[in-house]
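dumping this here before i forget
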Amino acid sequence: NLSVARKGFAPTALFLDVFAASFPKDFIDRRGVFHPASETKAEWCRALDECRIASGCSNMVIVSESGNDSLIGHLDAGASDHFIPEFIIQDRRQYAEAERVPWHDAVSHGKMVLLGGGLGSRYCMCGWTKQGDQALHGYATDDYFCTTVIGGRSPMCGGSFGRGVVKTYWMLHDVCKQLAKGDLMSFRFADGIHRQNSVFSTGEVWINRKTNSVWKVNGLSLPAYGFHVMCNDGREAAVLSVDGVRAGFAKSPGVWFLDARPPAGDGRLHEVEASAEAWERMSETSLKIDVRWKIRRPIDKSFLPFVHVVPFGDPRKIAFDAVMTPLPEGDIVVHLPKRLASGRYSVRYGFFTKTGSRLPIGGYGDGTGRVRGGVIEVGEKNGRPIVLDWTQEHPTVRHKDLEINVSRSMVDFGGVRTDGAFRMTFPDLKIIPLPGSKPFRIEMDLKRFGIEGKGKFTLEHPSSGAAAPESVVENGVLKASFDARSFAYLWQ
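structure:
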C-alpha cells in the first residue's frame, strides 16, 4: 500500500491505528519456539522503519494509537490514553490517594510526541464499560487541559471544528508549542500529589487537581483543574478564578484569547440534524417514534441507517436492533423481541458506512456518533415483553457543575473586561468570537494595546441578520456590544 501511495501522492506522514496500543510481548511460534518480548520490540521497530523505506520518505512522521517508550526512535507520536488511577487499580482499598502524573513525559518529552491525554472518551472513564462525564473531564475541559500542559504535550481535540476544538487551539497552541521546544527539567509535587509543578527549559507549569480548594500561585487563584503556564518568552495561559468566576486566558504577542465562560452553543453547523419528538403505540409489543429531520445536503448513498436499542445506563451493549423508515420521514419502528427483560431501554440511531464510520448528525447525541431517540419503558404480560411508555430525552446543561458564568459577570483580564469568549489581535484590533457564542460585551483600555481611540467596527463574513456593534469610546476606554453573528469585527 505504501509503495502505491509513494507513486500516487508521496505521503510524508503515516498513522497506524492500534499498532502501538499494546506492549511488546513474549510469544511462542507455531513450531513451539519461545521468543522474548525484546525480539517482539525489535521486530515492531523494524516494521516501523520498513514503512519509511516503502514510502520513500526517510523522515516520514509515524503516529500510532497509544505508544510506549520502547519504540522511541522509530515511532514519533502516539495518542497517549492517560487513564485515571481507578482504571488501573479499581479496588480503592489498595490506596488512600491517587493522581495522574507526567511519568511518561519524564522519559519521552522531546523524543516522542504525546497527544494530550489521549481519546477524550477514554480519558474520563473508569473502566471500559463505565462511561465517564465527558462534559466535565473529556476533550476541551480544564481537567483534560491540565494533563496536556503539565507534561508539555501537544494539544488534542475531538473533531475538526466546533467551540471546543477552536477553544483548545486558541488556549493551548502557543504555550504548548514553546514547551515542546524545551527539555523537561524537573517535576515536583506541591502540598500533596494533586498540586503539581513542571519546569521546562522554555517555561514553567503549575496545575491544581485538588478538587476541594483553590491554590494561590503566581498571584493567581487556581480553582479545581486550574493551571498556569508561563513561557520564558512571555507567552502565557491560565484557567483561574477571578472574583469567584471561573475563567481562562491565553496571551501571546499581539494576540489574546479571553474566556469569561458564558453560556453558549457548540458552534457546529451540521449538514444533517435530527430529534425524536413524539411516539405512537402500534401494538402491545411495538411502537413508532416520530423523528424530525433537517437535511441541508443529501446524505451520501454509502451511508446506511441503523437503530440500536440499548439497556438504559449501558450504551455499549446492544439489546436488539430496530428499523428506520426511508427519509424524508425517517421514523423509527421498534418491535420488541420475544425475550426481553422488563426495564428501561434507550434508543440510539444514525447512519453508518460498511467501513464502520458514522455520519455526523446534529442533535442530542451520546458521543459515539449516535443520536438519542428516547427511552422505552418495557413491562411484562403473559410472559411476553410489552411497551408501557416512551419518554423524550432532553439535553442537560449543568451550569453549576461546569461553573458557567450564567450571571454574565464582567471578568477583568487586565486591560480588558468582558462577559464573552473571543480572540483579539492588536494593535490592528480584530475581535473573533468563539464559535457558538451568544451576544457579549467588552470594555477595553485602548492605550494599553496601542490602539487609536477613533474608529468603528466593520463586519467580516457576517451571517444573515448580523448587526454592527454598538460602541463608544469614553476617556480612552472602548465599550462595545457584539451580537456574535459575524466571524469577526474589525476596528477601523
